[in-house]
Write a structure and sequence with these properties.
This protein has one domain: Vaccinia Virus protein VP39 (Rossmann fold), CATH 3.40.50. Strands 3-2-1-4-5-7-6 form a 7-stranded mixed β-sheet, sandwiched between helices. The protein starts with 13 loop residues before the first helix and ends with a strand. By secondary structure, the protein is of the alpha/beta class.
Length: about 230
């Protein structure tokens, strides 16, 4: 999310990725964590792929998106979409708070100061509101392998997304939430994504991958999906 209006737009291909591959495990975990009929803010709503699913469950969804073209697409599924930057207090003031849930689906790692944003988010929540955040795990085994080989392969999405400004392990994701004044009410882990599934699947069958992510999340979880309750 870029507050500089003179900067060139950043292409964020996440809507196209969902169009090709469908919703990820992390997306579904976030959707399932929302109570049907709730008032929801989807930060970084992109083209509205989460909003579409939430609206189908009777939720009233509001979006915030920095890309005006994506925001226009998301309006089909949202009651309102604010085109703005969640890091800017003036833009946050335009949001029709309070919300029962505020969702950060792989968004916090794109921010310059996610600590301040997550702290400020508390003011946008209803009294019994929750934040749901999905955060990629830079300590995933595949990232460790690349770094051990001396590589940091920037890509359009994934752990090495070129637009990530921050990188989190499980410990630092917990520290982010706790320093912003939340307790972790629930935590789930997405399974690993195997770039060499045909070969590595023989070492660990697909059916065992979710169990490995739960048993050793620091190593095998691709994302941490946390439900956060303000303290």
């Amino acid at each position: 999310m870029n507050a500089d209006s003179n900067a060139p737009p950043i292409d964020r291909p996440y809507g196209r990725l969902v169009d090709r591959q469908g919703l990820s495990d992390g997306h579904r975990m976030m959707i399932d964590a929302v109570r049907p009929g709730s008032r929801v803010l989807d930060v970084g709503c992109a083209t509205g792929y989460l909003a579409e699913q939430l609206a189908a469950r009777g939720c009233t969804v509001f979006g915030m998106e920095s890309d005006a073209a994506n925001a226009e697409k998301a309006r089909v599924f949202c009651a309102e979409v604010v085109v703005g930057d969640i890091e800017q207090a003036d833009d946050r003031a335009r949001l029709p708070a309070p919300f029962d849930y505020i969702m950060y689906g792989d968004v916090l790692e794109h921010l310059r100061d996610p600590w301040t944003v997550l702290t400020a988010t508390r003011e946008l929540l209803a009294p019994d509101g929750r934040v749901i955040a999905s955060i990629p795990n830079i300590a995933h085994w595949s990232a460790r392998r690349e770094i051990a080989l001396g590589r940091f392969p920037y890509a359009d999405h994934g752990l090495f997304d070129r637009t990530h400004l921050r990188f989190f392990t499980r410990a630092s994701a917990h520290a982010l939430a706790e320093s912003a004044g939340y307790e972790i009410e629930r935590e789930e882990f997405t399974r690993w994504r195997l770039p060499m599934q045909k070969f590595l699947g023989a070492l660990m069958p697909k059916s065992l991958q979710p169990k490995a992510a739960r048993r050793w999340p620091e190593l095998f979880a691709f994302q941490f999906v946390m439900t956060l309750k303000p303290r």
